[in-house]
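WARN retry 2 of 3 for item q-0093 after timeout on previous attempt; input resubmitted unchanged.
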Amino acid sequence: MPTSITHAPSDSAADRAPTAEELLGPALHEEVVRHFTAKPDAPSAAVVRHQVRECMRYLYLVSRHPDRLGGLFLPVEQDIDEIWHYLILQTREYRELCEQRLPGGHFIHHRSISYGAYQEAPGRQTAAEEALRWIPLYTAEFGPFDADALAHWTIVRFLHDELHMSLTEISGLGDGAEAPDDPTVSVRDRA
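OK item q-0093 returned
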């Protein structure tokens, strides 16, 4: 007899976002890791795997939530952007990733803009508010931020390092989170 099931967070394949290796396929995933570990002064393969994971999580969120995240400033560090650039240059595989493997089924375009130019248009508060939009979407799809993700998400690292918020506190920020009007005031002080 069929029953209705309320889904709780789970590790089953049906209830979780795909891994970076599942999205890219094993061959492309290993190619990306090899490419970035072969660079001079490259981090370890473990760190590069985390970078690839966070790049794929970024693209997954952009694909799944284009209405909420489209056109926002890139909230990840340069290492993630470089992996995205590498993937874009694998044109056939990148198109397949965007259109067939990511949840939105649409091509994700990339447009470079300097941080300074971006800051001039919307202003500091808008930039902070836009960056905070990512947190509840990320945690809903992938669970709480962990130490391996911390270095790669600009807003998360800022909240952790500058405002001294724990990863648990950061992961608990909801859709109602607002950026401080004064960047010297912590999010916790505004509650």
